[in-house]
């Protein structure tokens, strides 16, 4: 396995030293990725999977220099071996028994073990967020998804119905089915399910990591607010699709504008995250000024 060296001219040379590890991981996971891309990742509910994977790889590369710097002069950790072996066993069980939670989740354990064996715990710490972010691409068991998705769809449908009724639209609801005018719309898993919530959670946590606020109040506050922000963004998407269908017909609601409503979901979530971050920044600035005056 590769070790760090200060004689390498740059990041590219350091990455090339990891080529055997990359080849080994490719042998294990390229077949798994092919199955995902031609299977569940091709569905609307799981389309966030390849996006999360791409961002995770970018985060690993982005923090590569910091990881190499943290590894200088540090001892490797023997804890890497049991973690590495556990990851291999998890992969073997998941691949042989078609348990995606184990098969795809095992890559995180393997990367942790490899990092500890070659670079040490401080280097692993430099990559903690990239590895944590990978959790959002791991497919969850269907029974767990179904158990959480139905109450979420009910809540989103309820709020969307009441808001549109309050502003004067002829809308009613039966379970997760909305009827507006002559049209009936079923709130699908892709519009208000657990996967959508997890995607928006990933978006919010990525924002927190990229802006790197030094205020604990803003970081903790925004992390907590991501859940209601995700719910609100889902309500906005369902309302958008409902209004598109009501004003332009069922063909518009199920066609191009349906995909556009998906963009509305992420744009509204991002704007809400930035907006709440701005509010928290103002609150933090006011609190600091108030402490300065009292001092």
Could you characterize the architecture of this molecule?
The chain is mostly helical. The protein has helices at 11-17, 19-37, 48-62, 64-71, 80-97, 100-118, 121-126, 128-133, 142-166, 189-192, 194-211, 216-248, 250-254, 256-294; strands at residues 171-174, 177-180, 183-186. Strands 1-2-3 form a three-stranded antiparallel beta sheet. Helix 5 packs antiparallel against helix 6 (100-118), helix 11 packs across helix 14 (256-294) and helix 12 (216-248) runs antiparallel to helix 14 (256-294). The model is unreliable at 3-8 (pLDDT under 50).
Mean pLDDT: 83
Please state the overall shape, judged from the principal axes of the Cα atoms: globular
Report on the biggest sheet. Answer: 3 strands, antiparallel
Secondary structure class reads mainly alpha
Structure summarized in a few sentences:
This protein has 295 residues and is mostly helical. The protein has 14 helices and three strands.
Blueprint of the fold:
Elements: H1 11-17, H2 19-37, H3 48-62, H4 64-71, H5 80-97, H6 100-118, H7 121-126, H8 128-133, H9 142-166, E1 171-174, E2 177-180, E3 183-186, H10 189-192, H11 194-211, H12 216-248, H13 250-254, H14 256-294
Antiparallel strand pairs: 1-2, 2-3
Helix pairs in contact: 5-6, 9-12, 11-12, 11-14, 12-14
List keywords for this structure.
three-stranded antiparallel β-sheet; 295 residues; 75% helix; mainly alpha; 4% strand
């Amino acid at each position: 396995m590769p070790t760090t060296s200060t004689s390498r001219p740059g990041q590219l040379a350091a990455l090339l030293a990891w080529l055997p590890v990359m080849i080994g991981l490719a042998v294990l996971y390229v077949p798994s990725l092919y199955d995902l891309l031609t299977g569940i990742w091709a569905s609307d509910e799981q389309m966030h999977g390849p996006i999360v994977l791409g961002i995770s790889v970018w985060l690993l590369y982005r923090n590569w220099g910091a990881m190499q710097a943290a590894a200088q002069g540090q001892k490797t950790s023997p804890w890497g071996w049991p973690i590495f072996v556990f990851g291999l066993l998890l992969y073997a069980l998941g691949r042989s028994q078609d348990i995606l939670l184990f098969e795809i989740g095992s890559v995180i354990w393997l990367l942790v073990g490899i990092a500890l064996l070659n670079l040490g715990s401080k280097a692993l710490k430099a990559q903690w967020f990239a590895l944590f972010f990978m959790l959002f691409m791991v497919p969850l068991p269907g029974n767990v998804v179904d158990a959480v998705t139905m109450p979420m769809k009910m809540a989103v449908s309820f709020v969307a119905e009441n808001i549109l009724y309050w502003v004067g639209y002829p809308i009613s609801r039966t379970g997760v089915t909305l009827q507006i005018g002559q049209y009936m719309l079923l709130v699908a898993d892709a519009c208000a399910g657990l996967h959508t919530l997890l995607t928006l959670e990933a978006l919010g946590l990525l924002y927190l990591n990229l802006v790197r606020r030094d205020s604990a109040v803003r970081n903790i506050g925004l992390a907590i607010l991501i859940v209601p922000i995700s719910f609100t963004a889902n309500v906005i998407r369902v309302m958008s699709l409902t209004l598109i269908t009501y004003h332009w017909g069922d063909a518009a609601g199920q066609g191009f504008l349906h995909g556009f409503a998906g963009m509305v979901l992420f744009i509204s979530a991002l704007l809400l995250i930035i907006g709440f971050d701005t509010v928290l920044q103002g609150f933090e600035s006011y609190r600091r000024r108030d402490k300065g005056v009292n001092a």
